[in-house]
Predict the structure.
Amino acid sequence: MLSILIYGMVYLGSALMVVNILRYIQYIRHIQKKGEWADERMIIYIPLVLLVMFLVGYLVVGVFGRPDLVISGILFFGSVFVAIIVELLWRVTNRIQQNDRLEAELLAAEESNKAKTVFLSSMSHEIRTPMNAIIGLDTIALRNPDLPEETREQLEKIDASARHMLDLINNVLDMSRIESGRMELASEEFSFRGLVEQINAITTGQCEAKGLEYVFEERGPVAEYYVGDSTKLKQVLINIIGNSVKFTPAPGRISFTVDAGQPYAGHCPVSFIIKDTGIGMDEAFIPKIFEPFSQESSGSTSSYGGSGLGLSITKNIVDMMNGDISVSSVKGSGTEFVIKLTLSAAERAREAAEPASAKAAGPGSAEGAAQAPAGMRVLIAEDIDLNAEILADLLELEDVASDRAENGRAAVELFEKSGPGAYGAILMDMRMPVMDGLEAAKAIRALPRPDAGTVPIIALTANAFEEDVRRCLQAGMDAHLSKPVDPDQLFEVIRSLTAPRAAGS
Amino acid sequence: MTTPELYELIGGNYEHALQIMRKDKMIGKYVLKLGSSDLNERLRAAAESMDAAQIFESAHAMKGVCGNLGLDALAEAAGEITEEFRPGSVRRLPDDEVRAKLAALDAFYERTLEGIRRYETELEEQA
């Protein structure tokens, strides 16, 4: 009995050893194929040596010797132990290789995503250039007073379609920017009053054209100024309100309510409620509306237009602002959107004078000449001597010193040579030889110095179309003024762009 | 001749100029500088060569300066040529018409300069 057990263990153990030696050799080959462990040959072979020693031990004991329980027991359990080790080695290696493979796949996916985004961006940019040409030429053609009525209508339709297309492209660009994580929120003081007035102006126009009633209401302690990203906020509100107008047939009613809650510790909760008496949505569809490209039925796409991205972009922006957007709707009855945001309080107290909006270039304020912060120095980039002199003189009237650069490149060089904070603002003419305003602005923003990102750059453009305002903003410019420059507007803009910073210094 | 009178003579908009330059003194100063600028020479050189980019640059420069000085009629005339030759836009006018318009603009500019010279002489006589 005992000898069966003894010899059983010896022979089983030997078999196990042989198997493990083979497995181990396999393992070594596998590792060497993958190129790792190339320098650690010595360590690799040690277990093999031990295994072989065990096997030899078995053979000696089993064939030539007289094994007893203890020895065969040790040999047997020893080999089981080694077998487990080899098994573990295999498993760990597999796991490591799996991880490597997943990492490589992730990297490849990210590369492909990035490539897609870069492609989308450059395509969008390529597409927008001829789009702007189409819109521009169409506008010029429409200026002709002798157009036959039919031609005028056709040109107007071309304009509408072209602008729609530009809208779609901008949406796609926004979406790709969001998905690649490159969309950023600005944080600056803006006139809430101005924002609301702009939205109301646009919406009133839309509603009148369609025969809809529009009601605007404000509730609670709404401030004049807030700190946040006014451009994106406007984008969100116009998107939602625009949708409401789009999906509400006449006679109908759109209402836009701003409901401000009590501010606490510099945080101002504001709710925007947009209600319409439009066609509404199915209950089942509501959870999906913020997904890209979802529109209730493919049939409606053709009659209502839209890229299907607007709401998705809106939701993303609201999320980025740590806000909340919710919707309730009854099919055939109407829809209500509620956007809850927390804006930051602005330092500026309610001012009865100057309805300042840093981005506006409307008629100068009637309350009298605005003033620039005294003792400031401004960099003027303007190629035409006379214009530069006039600007310098105007600034001088308000005690603002200036340096002049004849073109974009000179402007960048002058800025580079100056100390940080030397220039309180840069006036950048758009059209200049050697390097134009956009390029210069981009170059300045890219400089590695603390004020490169914050120095206010004001574009001087000959007309609002000539340089797409958006391109100016994307190039890093803060505002634009149209030529000939109205000094009141100029100082207004300079003041509003520099005041919040001055408050800190 | 006062500056408002000069502006009436040359078809400028004095109110507009005042809005931009705020002070009569400034307007006077810069209107005189117009005489010594090379805007008309640039325009003539461009008219000779009929090079699109050159015409655009010189007309655009003239439009800008005149706009800044409240010489609205002159700015508008220069503006027409600017739009015609804006890079990226398609030409509507045939070359002879363009030459004619350039000549007309030149003449208009000359008349303006004449008025300014008279204004200058009178100023010097008063001084």
